[in-house]
Amino acid sequence: MLAIQDTAEQLQQELRQTEEFMALQAAYGAMKQNELAFALFKNFQEMNFSLQQKQMQGQEISEDEIKKAQDLAEKIGNYPEVRTLMEKEQALSHLIDELNKTITGPVQGLYAD
Fold first, then answer.
1. Whether 65 contacts 46, CB under 8 Å
2. Whether the predicted model's global pTM rises above the 0.85 cut
3. Helices (H), 1-113
4. Which of 10, 20, 43, 68 is the most exposed place for a label (fewest CB within 10 A)?
């Protein structure tokens, strides 16, 4: 195995130890305790995945599909457990974005000339 892959696996383990990841993990567990919120969240994930697939395949997304997704997003947003989960996802995403900038720095620097 390449040394860089070993480094990536070590980074994965360290990511699991971050405050951001542990907070997300706790928020997900709390959301799962509310069966209705969890079911709506899973439905929302499936709907988003389906719409993304259509978009990537060049298919048009109908107004009805957009409306359904918006309605479902509004419904799940009414659950504090889901709102907390989304906040924790954003915090972890920010950390990952910062890591990505660091990791891809050499490539960015290469094209900066």
1. no
2. no
3. 3-16, 19-33, 35-56, 63-76, 80-103, 105-112
4. 10
